[in-house]
Amino acid sequence: MVQQVDYRLTGGQVLNVFNQEFEEKDVWIKDKKIIFVGDNQDLEAKTTIDCHDRWLVPGFIDAHLHIESSLLTPSEFGRLSLENGVTRIFADPHEIASVAGISGIQYMLDSAKKTPLHIHYMLPSSVPATPFEHAGAILDADALRPFYQHPEIAGLAEVMDFPAVANAQDDMLQKIADAKEAHRHVDGHGAGLGLAQLAIYRAYGIDTDHEATSKKEALDRVNAGMAVFLREGTVERDELSLLPAVTKANEGHFAFATDDKSAADIQKEGSINFNIALAIENGLTPELAYTLASYNGATAHHLQNVGALAPGFEADLVILTDPKQVTIDQVMVGGQFFQNEQEDVLRLPGQQINLTFSKADLALPLDASKPAHVIEIEPHHITTKHQVEMVPVDADRQFAPNETFAKVAVIERYHDLGHGLGIIKGLSLKDGAIASTIAHDSHNLIVAGVNDDDMVLAVETLKKIGGGQVVVKNGQVTTLPLPIGGLMSDLPYEGLIQKQQTLNEAFAKISPLTFDPFLTLSFMALPVIPSLKITDQGLFDFAQFAFIQIQD
């Protein structure tokens, strides 16, 4: 008896991820599944698609990211991702959870229903990330546990509070135990961790990491039994440093991730498709690169029947005209070809910015005879250098910003609890100020500048518009409003990218930087990443895991 199916894709070169070869075969699809690969006289398709001179690969998987870093809602992020062949993502809604707590997580779940992109959420493990900053919410194990009833929840997201694990802190261990009880897994966040520390993570069943930045660090994680995500985002450009770690013997331990990537960069260069092209350009075979981008991402997250073009697997695939250039012809997700249709954006009510800030708060008296502790930006990295340098001081014994050294402040924006103030090097500001309500991980308001009046105006502007990003030059203001929690735009991605371009043009008038200043600035407030950072509570030294004064 002949069985009718939805699609027959015929004549294409089909990637077999199990033997890493392209084979000319037919792919038969019914509902959301692949039911057969090859010749089959017992099947009849409603629609036959000629794929001669085409290559078929599994849909791309982003193994770890934060949707909010794109400044898009999940539905708009889905539209942009699918255009780039990404059919499945594993997202940590840590950012909106830090702002809005459980209502933020529920918002992300609801918005995900408006896109065909498969969105798996990993519950944020550390809200707040550490005791060294104030967030908009506190999420303990009891608050997170009910979310495991949602099938979209794939596990516990990047455990970044290593001391809580090492010291067997009750609530952190309960979060890990709850994930396992729900038959989910736990992601790691091993920035700066050595072998002994990784062993502690593994003892608690943490089995992935995306923070390796060198071949040695990647191999340390593989040898500990972890899956390693080769990260290539807007700021975190780590893939080229990590690719030498991938060998035929260990390739099953590697997958791709973007972590944090702006919508503009995704539109310009791609998402995981960019990771693939970069890997192929630097020596990986196309067969291996596409396997890392699909099947390996699925297995790292313990998914069954995902990431391969084989019977019983999900019908997520990409049709290519050029596999080496990752040139995309069509994308299928859930057994249907993607149609780029825009959905209405959901709102997140009740988010307000609550802070008090004035020019007096920027006063920074220094001893001109002593060096100061300075945060130095490392371009294309979220880490910083901890410098101790002589900095300019004026006749009133106040720090005097210039093109080398700027002021930076993080202002608590939820409960008006004050601010931390420091010195930053590497923004190359000739004038003015920039500010944002995106400041990882608690997303307080961060502002940097060389003009106090412009810094204050930047803060006041963000408070007035309910969050976003702003450039100020001599009182002239350019804004990118982010009304959803101060993190995400309510615009379609095309409109957001246009606004970003206008903002970047304004920034170019006050600095010659070529890398993303706002995403870079956002990580200056992340104390769980080396080396010197700033939170609303002050200047934080990762090496000491403690606050320090600007001058000793």
From TrEMBL:
Catalytic activity: adenine + H2O + H(+) = hypoxanthine + NH4(+)
UniProt key word RNA-binding: no
Molecular function GO terms recorded: adenine deaminase activity
Domain of life: Bacteria
Cofactor: Mn(2+)
Keywords, sorted A to Z: Hydrolase, Manganese
Record domain Amidohydrolase-related: where: 56-336
Hydrolase listed as a keyword: yes
Alphabetical list of InterPro entries matching this protein: Adenine_deam, Adenine_deam_C, Amidohydro-rel, Metal-dep_hydrolase_composite, Metal_Hydrolase
Enzyme Commission number(s) of this protein: 3.5.4.2
Regions that span the bilayer: none
Similarity section: Belongs to the metallo-dependent hydrolases superfamily. Adenine deaminase family.
NCBIfam families xrefs: ade
PANTHER family given in the database record: ADENINE DEAMINASE, N-ACETYLGLUCOSAMINE-6-PHOSPHATE DEACETYLASE
Stated name of the protein: Adenine deaminase
Chain's gene name: ade
